[in-house]
Amino acid sequence: MIYELAKKDDLQTVYKVVQHTIKTTYPKYYPAEVVDFFCEHHSKDAIAKDIENGYVSVLKIEENIVATGCFVDNHITRVYVLPEYQKKGYGTFIMKNIEASISEKYDKAYLDASLPAAALYEKLGFSTIKHERYPVGNGVILAYEVMEKELHKKVKTGKCHSVPNVMENGKIELSEQWEWTSGDYSKGESLLVEV
Fold it and tell me: Going by C-beta distance under 8 Å and a sequence separation of 6 or more, which residues neighbour residue 45?
């Protein structure tokens, strides 16, 4: 298994993976107008532009491209796995790679979830932050979820200088001066006495 940036000569295969997956999977969830919208949205020109900009990667099994992943900044835009390769962990593998790349510059990742993929994204820790509606024609509305995932757990850090003192009764007293090095950067003093 190889996961690498797509090259210009991968365009036709990536386009076929995306289109075949949409045309095979989406009719189970959406009316024809929505399926057509997705096919047009992920056009050959759109994919070519993303490949040229270095946004698209491909997953190869025995030299064959079976899946693709795409993101721009911290927005995941196109993850497709051929139907015959689904439910084998390849979508999760691609998402983890995309998240790792996004986390180098951003604290959160976003995506617009289609119905077939929403459960996977939720399982991977994404949460719905809003529901959107988009008219696709013939009075048909595409409903989808905008989801986000926190990529970095916020950890509060600080420093503390403690001076121990053994009191006459043998118990220890700690005089501390502390300061947070993240968050609100507050500082203060504490006195801890052994009971």
Answer: none
Q: Over the stretch 70-129, which tens digit does the pLDDT of each residue have? A: 999 999 999 999 999 999 999 999 999 999 999 999 999 999 999 889 999 999 999 999
142 and 78, same structural domain? yes
Say what the pTM is. Answer: 0.77
Domain count for the chain: 2
Decide: 76 and 96 in contact? Cβ < 8 Å. Answer: no
Long-range contacts formed by 80-89: CB under 8 A, 24+ apart: 80/17, 80/18, 80/21, 80/22, 81/21, 82/17, 82/20, 82/21, 83/20, 83/21, 83/24, 83/25, 85/61
Domain residues for 125? 2-150
Q: Is the domain of 27 the same as that of 102? A: yes
